[in-house]
Design a protein that fits this description.
354 residues, mainly alpha, 78% helix, 0% strand, globular, cell inner membrane, L-rhamnose/proton symporter RhaT, cell membrane
């Protein structure tokens, strides 16, 4: 029997990890985006997933070997598609900043990643809609989407009232048009991670049957989905490194200006490792949270997205991305955050009635 309120807490921890992972990247100096994204990604998609799955599950490699090949292939393909969104996620942060970038990208990601899996299983209209608790969960989903939209409106309002030089000061590469296009693509593709997790349920059940604690049975699924995601990201970063001729930066970080303090590869590596492990922790806590949500585990994806936006918005304040914003803009932001926090409570309550 799951504990939905505990599940909400786990999702909040995952959201905090995801919202925080890009902050260490801001400390990296002298490396181009493709360099630090590739190195951070090694810790996100390969090192951390397999290490944690190995120590927290039973017979990891035996379970994967026993899994149906079609299940594994679906996970990898969805991971490849998710990777297209993942590699543009960093670009979204570059062009829009943490607050607005995450609100736009994750809004679409939350919607598609939540609604489509139960539809594919054929249970949305037969099991979710007819039940009272199902309706409450859907109410929470709707409240989440409203909150995401309101936060996004706040970001757009902020962009209109800010002088170009102020935007460039807080977000060096701010570009609303380019950022929104990238965020749109990112959100659509990123929702495929939810599809990969849903497709990997048979693998998770095999892990549970092997004696894995139910909290961690989904960790092998994350490993397989990330094989596809890592492939997409590594290929794209390799292309950019070859195109931009930035490989030498790995050993000798390049100074961007004469006044910039010299950077070291060792320090950059530590920041990238921290960013990478933080990124992975979002899904470490995600599978723990999903295991507690009962038959409406599909709502986990919305809880995950809402938690990320809540904490990324708070990071936006800490990093002064909202500095100088009007009262109207801040009202949008706080109202949106209130809706998001409320949505997590409503979804948790709906799941507790099952």
């Amino acid at each position: 029997m799951g504990n939905p309120l505990l599940g909400v807490l786990f999702h909040w921890l995952g959201g905090l990890a995801s919202a925080s992972f890009y902050v260490p990247f801001r400390k990296v100096r002298g490396w181009s985006w493709e360099i630090y994204w590739l190195i951070g990604g090694f810790f996100s998609w390969i090192f951390a997933p397999w290490i944690f799955a190995y120590f927290r599950t039973e017979d990891l490699f035996g379970v994967i070997a026993a899994a149906d090949s079609n299940t594994l292939m679906q996970c990898i393909v969805y991971g490849l598609l998710w990777g297209l969104g993942g590699l543009t996620f960093g670009l979204t942060m570059r062009y829009l900043g943490l607050s607005l970038g995450m609100a736009v990208a994750l809004g679409l990601c939350a919607f598609f990643g939540t609604i489509i899996p139960p539809m594919l299983k054929g249970v949305f209209f037969t099991e979710v809609l007819p039940s009272t608790h199902g309706k409450i969960v859907l109410l929470g989903l709707a409240l989440c989407l409203i909150g995401i939209a309101i936060v996004g409106l706040g970001g757009i309002h902020k962009e209109k009232e800010s002088a170009p030089e102020e935007r460039q000061k807080n977000i060096a590469e701010f570009d609303l048009k380019k950022g929104l296009l990238v965020a749109l693509f990112c959100g659509l593709m990123s929702s495929c991670f939810a599809f990969g997790i849903a497709a990997g349920e048979p693998l998770a059940e095999l892990s549970a049957a092997a004696g894995t604690n139910p909290l961690f049975k989904g960790l092998p699924v994350i490993c397989i989905v990330l094989i596809g995601g890592a492939t997409t990201n590594f290929l794209w970063c390799a292309y950019l490194i070859a195109k931009n001729k930035t490989a030498a930066e790995i050993l000798q970080p390049k100074l961007r200006s004469a006044n910039e303090r010299p950077a070291t590869s060792g320090i950059n590596l530590l920041w990238c490792a921290l960013a990478g492990v933080l990124w992975y922790f979002q899904f470490f806590f995600y599978v723990m949270g999903e295991s507690q949500m009962g038959e409406y585990g599909f709502s986990s994806w919305t809880l995950h997205m809402a938690s990320i936006i809540i904490f990324s918005s708070l990071w936006g304040f800490a990093l002064k991305e909202w500095k100088g914003s009007s009262k109207t803009t801040l009202t949008y932001v706080f109202l949106g955050l209130g809706c998001l926090i409320g949505s997590t409570m409503v979804i948790g309550y709906g799941n507790s009635l099952v």
